[in-house]
Each structure stands twice: as C-alpha cells, then as structure tokens.
Amino acid sequence: MNFDRIREKLNILADAAKYDVSCASSGSTRTNQNKGLGNASKMGICHTYTADGRCVSLLKILLTNHCIFDCAYCVTRKSNDVPRAAFKVQEVVDLTINFYRRNYIEGLFLSSGIFKSPDHTMERLVSVAKKLREEENFNGYIHLKSIPGASDELMYEAGLYADRLSVNIEVPTISGLKLLAPDKKHEDFTKPMEKVKNEIVRYQSEHKVIKNIPKYAPAGQSTQMIVGASGESDKDIMYSATYYYKTYNMKRVYYSGYVPVTHDARLPAIGSQVPMLRENRLYQTDWLLRFYGFSVGEILNNQHPNLDMDVDPKLSWALRNLHHFPVNVNTADKRLLARIPGVGMQSVDKIVKARKFRKLNWDHLKKIGVALNRAQYFMVCESRLWERRDLDADKIKGMILQNSTGKFRNQYSTQLSLFN
Amino acid sequence: MNATTTLVYDGSFNGFLTSVFVAFDEKINVADIQKNNQSQNGLFSETETVFTHVEKAKRVWNGIRNKSHNAISNVYFAFLSETEGVEMMLYTYIQKLMRTQNGKYLDYSDSTVLHIAQLAKKVGREKHRMEAFVRFQLTKDEIYFANIEPDFDVLPLISKHFRDRYADQKWLIYDVKRKYGIYYDLDHVEMVSLNLKDIHHNKTVKSDAFAPEEYEYQTLWNDYFKSTNIASRINPKLHTQHVPKRYWKYLSEKKEAV
Ligand code: SF4
C-alpha cells in the first residue's frame, strides 16, 4: 500500500464527507460469524468525538468527490474548484479493516459524488460492501449512501450487504429542491426509498417463515435534511420529516445546520452562523415525536410555525397548554407523566416503579432525577406545597429561565440536551 | 449488645459473595466487610477471615439473581467500582433485597438502592467508555495490544465484548493501574498478570515493538480525526466532556495533544 497517496486521498475524501451528520452505528444486530471479524450491536459505540463534539463511530468517506451534478449546497459539486480524488475499491476495504482491527471504528459509512452515472457509482459502493462481507468476513456496521437515481436492482443488492441505507433528501421542500439541486428530481430520492422500504417489509414477512434468508438492511434507512439553506420554516421541516418517517419507515431523519461552503447567491453567505441551536431544537422535536407520544401538529402548526429558541419544545408546548397541568405524579398514567417538562422517559419509569412503594414527594422526585426547576410548575405530588397555582405562562417561563444555568443559554451546544 | 464482627476477605468478587453467605449462614452481626490488604479493626469488633468458596459464592449469586436480574448486575458493577466501604453498602442492599416479597427491589426512593444504582451506573459508563477508547496497536508478533487506565476495575466487564468482536485476531488489553490484563489467544480469554515497564503511551517516538505499518495507520487515523472537524462548529467544552483528558494519553488520535 502506498501510504502517502492514501493519506492524500483520505484527507480529501474524509473532508468532503464530514457534512453528512448521520454517524449512527446503532440499530443493527450482526453477530460475529465463523470466527470472523466484528459485530454490530443494537447500541452502537462512539469511539471518539470531533472537536465540535459530534460522535465518531464510522469511517465516513466518499468513494470519490468527482461529480457530474451541481447542487448548490454541496462542496463536491461540479462547479466548485477543489482538489479531486477517488479511492479504489480495495483501498476502502483495507482502510476499513485496519481501522476496525485497531478499535477505531464501528464500521464504514460510504458515500460518493456521482461519477459517470448514478448506477455506475452505486455499483462501486456495493462492491466495497460485498468485498468486506464476503472476502473479509467482516460483520461490522456498513452504511451505504444510495445514489439518487440508482436502479432497483442495485438497491436490492446494496441492502443485502449494508446495515443501513440512506438517501439524503437535503432540501425539505420540492420548490427548494428545484432551486438548489436542479439536476435532481424528487423521484430520484423517493424511488430508492420506496424500493428499500418494500424490500425490508418483504424480508420481515419472509423471515417469519424462513429463518435463514439473508438479512436486508437490518438497521433500516435514514435520510438527512439541511436546515437553514432555503428559507423553510421548522414546520416545513418537521412535516417533511414526519412524512418520510411514515411513508418510508425511516429509522432516523437527521437535521444538519447548513454550513456555508460555496459562494452562491441562492444560499447564506460564507461565514454566516451555522444554526446549531435550531438544529438542536429540531432534534428535540423529533425525539418528542418518536418517544414521547406527541404528534407533530401539537408542536408545530400555523399559529406556531417555528420552534422557540429560548426554551425546549416540550416546555414550549406545556406553556401553550397549561390547561393539561398540573399532572399528579402519584396517579397519572405514563403518557401524561412524559409530558411534564423536566421529566424524561427514564424518570417516568422510575416514578412508576417507586410510587408502588409510597406516595412520592418533592424529595423523592429530586432523587429520582426529575429537573424540578422546570417540573415543579407542572405537577403536584405528596406535598401541600404547590405555590405556583396562579402563575401564567409568561411568569413561569420567566422564572424557569432565571433559574436555569447554561442549559438554555448554551447556544452552541450541538448535543441533544434532552429532557432528563 | 451483640458482639459485632468484621469479615475479612481476599478482595475478589467471589470472596465478597462468600462473606455474604457466611454472614447470613452464621447470623453474624456484621460490623464491616474488608479486603485483607486494607483491613482495619474496629474498636469493638472481632475479626473473622473468610476463605473464598466458589459454591457458597454461587449460592448467593443465584439467590440475588432469582430475585432480580437488575439487582445482580447492580451488585457486580457496584463492587467493581472499588469504592471504599462499598461492601457494607452492598451487604445492606442484599439484605433489603432478600427481605422483599415482591421479587424486584426497585424502590429508588430508598437511599441504599439509589446509591448502589448510581455506583453501578458509573461503572457501566466506564465500561462503555473502555469499549470505545481501547486503541489496539499491532505488535511485531501479531498481537493487537492496548493499554487502558480506567477509574474502575472494568476489565472483567469488557472481556466478552472484545472476544465477540475480535474473534480472528490475538489481542491483549492491559490495565496499567491494576497491573493485569486480559489476553485472547484465538480460543480463550485469560487473565494475565504482567508488570510492564515500557508502557506505550501515544508517544510520537516510535517503538520497534510494533509492526512497521502500525504507525502508518495511526497517522491515517490521526488525519482522519482532524478532517472530521468542522471548524465553524468547534466546541472544546463539549469535546472534553465526551473525551475526558485523562484518557487522552492512550488515544492515537490525540497523539499531538498529549
Ligand atoms: S449529486 Fe451529491 S455529490 Fe454531487 S453535487 Fe449533488 S449533493 Fe453533491
């Protein structure tokens, strides 16, 4: 192996791949077979974190950054003047295996610019995955990016080797897509999604009958949307996300605050702030929809098309819906408990278990880990102290903001400071 | 007043479980349970040395497990925290557990239960971190070798993870602080006690113990790590929160930072 040349390529092709935010290595269960190399666990592991605090669990690279298309938001686009490179299939295989053996990574996330044609490119991606599985007996995680416009046959093959497939929608609205990615049609994205969804459904039903048929994309599919590039509202974004979750059984939708990388009049200028707080709020919303039983219309609607920046979406919802509160923690069902600001799902579980033994008071709740600085305004417990009965939403919000340290003010946290 | 007894055991988990067995079996009024190398007599208590007895330990293990799976893992994890006085806390915990009727003892409003759960959680986090932060270096004799220096004694907890994952390569993970390691020889994982003098930190100086391409891959990884960063999003506080500095010296991607 010529390490100097590989080094150059890696620098170019990792750099171009870093804007894809998906780095999850979770959701698959591939066991190590025949004393081979690697496995993939339900949990996934972050092996390190970037200087900006994001998890690194996969070797995330492009096969090549040559591209025949010209999407405005993309560093790799044809009209951008950057050094170009391309990996050989075997080079990607060797890098993955050697990084994996040293416990640097959970697996590979391979994407690519489109060279020649979508199918030509997709075929290469598939052959990397195939080699890893069949020649190297590699059972670690593989995420392949589906190239928009790739054929059904290749999507089928991709799913046999990959744990996850994704095609990034990038622009949440069709009009935005026309403007920013003139070479792509909406169907180029949705057709592969549809194929993958159907294959997964088919796999699951056949698997019930025949146990040893080959897995098909066991970690499902995901997609990504860029936030803040084409003037869409949070409502637009979350309604699109909900659509993709429902229509194509997405495992995850990722939200990526747009990092200006090219000069283009259609886009925010280079040097503009990356909307990280907004991105964080979108993830929090996504979380509420997937795990807390909220429906999207409760959180975003015509009266409230954008998320609040100063408070998290659950608190924001509670403040707009004070008539649901206070919730009695000693009697309320799980669904209602989960709606109290400052009470996370873990606390909900602990509350339900603990209250079998005794009626809970403020002290118990504090020990359990409820964030009382927020929760106290929305619940009653075994205590006569509930002094804030007469407060209105503005007062409550004011008091919470005043008493919270950092959490809401930390504008640059990219991490999900969830609702513990 | 009943006489109290301090039980002294050999420091192993089985030894601890045996002590619990002895205490229950002989209805001892336990003053303390201590490791033999750090035992101190209480003023008014007798000392009894407990000899590790695997069968007895097993009975206690099964007894706890039959009550609750969650409890048995809490007990083991909390024990590995090596926290001073954890034995007595665990003893109280096990007593409470054995007295409960309804099987599971999950009353988080009880301070012992909560405390043990918290300790177990800390150890669990360290386990998880070590699964992430082990960095193997390939030696000339084809063993993937790693140093770690965890806060808690987590080698026994991570052994299965690495065995399941790296079934086709020999590896050795060495705990620098506790001076022992786990070694996988393609068949079994064994505990090995070593006293390594030459601890291979991520020094920029190369050691000839390692395969020639080893440093090439470290460089590639180091480069890769750098190029994943998006400059306009940099957040050092968040970074060190996830990768605390005390781990840096064994992380190849942090080579230059140490
Ligand atoms: S097709 Fe993909 S790689 Fe090419 S310019 Fe568009 S987004 Fe970038």
TrEMBL record, chain A:
<dbReference type="Pfam" id="PF12836">
    <property type="entry name" value="HHH_3"/>
</dbReference>
<dbReference type="Pfam" id="PF04055">
    <property type="entry name" value="Radical_SAM"/>
</dbReference>
<dbReference type="GO" id="GO:0046872">
    <property type="term" value="F:metal ion binding"/>
</dbReference>
<dbReference type="InterPro" id="IPR010994">
    <property type="entry name" value="RuvA_2-like"/>
</dbReference>
<protein>
    <submittedName>
        <fullName>Putative DNA modification/repair radical SAM protein</fullName>
    </submittedName>
</protein>
<keyword id="KW-0411">Iron-sulfur</keyword>
<dbReference type="InterPro" id="IPR051675">
    <property type="entry name" value="Endo/Exo/Phosphatase_dom_1"/>
</dbReference>
<keyword id="KW-0408">Iron</keyword>
<keyword id="KW-0949">S-adenosyl-L-methionine</keyword>
<dbReference type="GO" id="GO:0003824">
    <property type="term" value="F:catalytic activity"/>
</dbReference>
<dbReference type="GO" id="GO:0051536">
    <property type="term" value="F:iron-sulfur cluster binding"/>
</dbReference>
<dbReference type="InterPro" id="IPR058240">
    <property type="entry name" value="rSAM_sf"/>
</dbReference>
<keyword id="KW-0479">Metal-binding</keyword>
<feature type="domain" description="Radical SAM core">
    <location>
        <begin position="62"/>
        <end position="238"/>
    </location>
</feature>
<dbReference type="InterPro" id="IPR013785">
    <property type="entry name" value="Aldolase_TIM"/>
</dbReference>
<dbReference type="InterPro" id="IPR007197">
    <property type="entry name" value="rSAM"/>
</dbReference>
<dbReference type="InterPro" id="IPR023874">
    <property type="entry name" value="DNA_rSAM_put"/>
</dbReference>
UniProtKB/TrEMBL annotation, chain B:
<feature type="domain" description="DUF4130">
    <location>
        <begin position="86"/>
        <end position="253"/>
    </location>
</feature>
<dbReference type="InterPro" id="IPR023875">
    <property type="entry name" value="DNA_repair_put"/>
</dbReference>
<protein>
    <submittedName>
        <fullName>DNA metabolism protein</fullName>
    </submittedName>
</protein>
<dbReference type="InterPro" id="IPR025404">
    <property type="entry name" value="DUF4130"/>
</dbReference>
<dbReference type="Pfam" id="PF13566">
    <property type="entry name" value="DUF4130"/>
</dbReference>
